[in-house]
Amino acid sequence: QVHLVESGGDLVKPGGSLRLSCAASGFTFSDYYMSWIRQAPGKGLEWISYIDYTGTTIHYADSVKGRFTISRDNAKNSLYLQMTSLRAEDTAVYYCARAVSLGDWGQGTLVTVSS
Amino acid sequence: DVVMTQTPLSLSVIPGQPASISCTSSQNLLHTNNKTYLYWYLQRPGQSPQPLIREVSSRFPGVPDRFSGNGAGTDFTLKISRVEAEDVGVYYCMQGINLYTFGQGTKLEI
Predict the structure, then answer these.
(1) How far apart are CA B110 and CA B104, in angstroms?
(2) Partner B contacted by A34 (CB < 8 A)
(3) Of A91, A97, A99, A108, which residue is 20 to 30 A from A2 by alpha carbon distance?
(4) Looking at chain A, which runs of residues are DSSP E strands?
(5) pLDDT tens profile B18-66
(6) List of chain A residues whose C-beta atoms are within 8 Å of the C-beta of residue B103
(7) Which neighbouring-strand residues pair with A72?
(8) Confidence band (pLDDT; 50, 70, 90) for A42?
(9) Distances B81 to A110, B8, B15 between C-alpha atoms, Å
(10) Does A102 contact B101 at a Cβ distance shorter than 8 Å?
(11) Which residues are registered as beta bridge partners of B101?
């Protein structure tokens, strides 16, 4: 059974940094693209980044380009999102999702950016 | 950027009755590989989104057959043949031909 567990969410001040993790199990992690999607409080879904099987191909939404970095460690079955220069508008629940089809999602981790 | 527009934004349905949600994209979602990258997701209250439909009309494993999707090019529809209480939540369409973009969401209530 596919299992995705996000962690690392926290309260951080504007301009601060945070690293999110997504631990994957129940499937061959290295066989799948992975994505991060976020949802601001009371708002809709916003895709923010994806990474291919090996980390060779990476894309970001314009809203996070230059500030966020996606990466993965296939040996540890883990996906990461390094977030820097955080802004209030980055406050959201961050989800990781599996595959091009986003066919499996984790439960999310909350990032709050506030002074 | 591809813009996804859903209508209606909210929907109130009597259990057992059908429901329909439309999704329009600003670009043709048909890829040169002949696949159309249009997906539907349901986010139940307090839960993570879950996948319903992939590539316009294929249900993800475990999705009841009362859910169906159709459409082509830029115009798509999600239909629920007979709404049940567990179908309450927000429905999102998403395009996957040019990165990913979600629609605004349609809130279904009973």
Answers:
(1) 20
(2) no
(3) A91
(4) 3-7, 11-12, 18-25, 34-39, 45-51, 58-60, 68-73, 78-83, 92-98, 104-105, 109-113
(5) 999 999 999 999 999 999 999 999 999 999 999 999 999 999 999 999 9
(6) 44
(7) A79
(8) very high
(9) 35, 17, 10
(10) no
(11) B95
